[in-house]
Design a protein that fits this description.
254 residues; alpha+beta; Jelly Rolls; 2 domains; 3-stranded antiparallel β-sheet; 32% helix; globular
Length: 254
C-alpha cells in the first residue's frame, strides 16, 4: 500500500499497477489492492479500470419498500430518524474514521432490539437481492463472489452537520457497501457543486495528475445505494444549515 501510494504521487502509475497486480495474484479479493489497481489502471488507460469501476453495473440506487406497520415510507423515515438520533451520543467524529464534521453511532446497529431499527434490516433484503440478481455471476471481483445469499457484517449511522463530509475511502472487509439516506440536505443538493452528493472513483491519496470522481449519485430520503466495497467513495461537503443522516452497512457473501 505504501509503495503504491508513493508511485501514484510521483506520477508512476505503471509501477503502482505492477505492485497491485502482484498482490492480487496472491490474494484476488484483496480490496486494498483492488482499489489501488483501479486508480493506477485509470491513470494509464488500462481496461482493468472499467472492469472494476463499471459504474452503470455496480453503483445501484434503489428505494426500500415501506416496512410493515408503517402507513408510508415518509412515516417510517421519521421514526427511524428519531430512533437513530437517540444513538448518536458522540458529538464529534471518531478520529480513525472517514467522517469529518458530524457523529457516528458507537455500536453496531445489528445489536439493536428497537423495532424501528430491526424493521430497517428487513426492508433492505429486497434491494440487496435485486442487486445480486442484476449483477449476476462472472469472473470479476464482484460477480465471482455472488452466491445469491448474503449476510450483513456491520452497520452504523452517520449524521453530518454543515461543512461535514466523508473523506474518500474504501471498506476492506466488505463485499458490497452501502449508503441509505434517512435525511438529506435538500437545499445543498440543488447547488452547482453537488454539495451533499455521494461520489465514486476519487482516490484518497494524492496522484499525479490529480483524479476527480467518475460518478456522482444524488441522495434522496428512502434511497439505498449499493456498490462494491473496494470502490473509492466519499461525500461532497455541504455548507447549508442542514443535516444529513445515513445508515451504512457492509454485506458479505453467505
Amino acid at each position: 500500500e505504501a509503495l503504491c501510494t508513493v508511485y501514484l504521487a510521483a506520477g508512476r502509475p505503471h509501477d503502482a499497477l505492477a505492485v497491485a497486480r502482484r498482490r492480487l495474484a496472491r490474494a484476488p479479493h484483496d480490496h486494498v489492492a483492488l482499489a489501488f489497481a483501479a486508480v493506477a489502471a485509470r491513470m494509464v488507460g488500462d481496461p482493468q479500470y472499467e472492469r472494476l469501476y463499471d459504474y452503470s453495473a455496480f453503483v445501484r440506487p434503489a428505494q426500500i419498500p415501506t416496512p410493515k406497520g408503517w402507513r408510508s415510507l415518509d412515516a417510517y423515515l421519521a421514526d427511524l430518524k428519531d430512533a437513530l438520533i437517540r444513538l448518536h451520543a458522540l458529538k464529534a467524529h471518531p478520529l480513525e474514521n472517514s467522517l469529518r464534521g458530524g457523529s457516528q453511532t458507537s455500536q453496531s446497529l445489528l445489536r439493536s432490539k428497537d423495532p424501528v431499527i430491526t424493521a430497517f434490516f428487513q426492508a433492505i433484503d429486497e434491494p440487496i437481492r435485486a442487486y445480486m440478481e442484476a449483477v449476476g455471476t462472472g469472473d470479476d471481483p464482484v460477480r465471482s463472489r455472488n452466491t445469491g445469499a448474503y449476510s450483513v457484517k456491520a452497520a452504523w449511522s452517520v449524521r453530518l452537520k454543515p461543512n461535514g463530509f466523508h473523506v474518500d475511502h474504501i471498506h476492506p472487509q466488505g463485499w458490497l457497501s452501502s449508503a441509505f439516506y434517512v435525511e438529506t440536505p435538500a437545499a445543498a443538493l440543488e447547488t452547482p457543486g453537488r454539495e451533499g452528493w455521494i461520489r465514486f472513483g476519487r482516490p484518497r491519496m494524492r496522484t499525479t495528475p490529480e483524479l476527480d470522481a467518475g460518478c456522482y449519485v444524488r441522495p434522496e430520503p428512502g434511497t439505498l445505494v449499493l456498490f462494491p466495497s473496494y470502490m473509492w467513495h466519499g461525500t461532497v461537503p455541504f455548507t447549508t444549515d442542514e443535516s444529513r443522516m445515513t445508515v451504512a452497512f457492509d454485506v458479505v457473501p453467505a
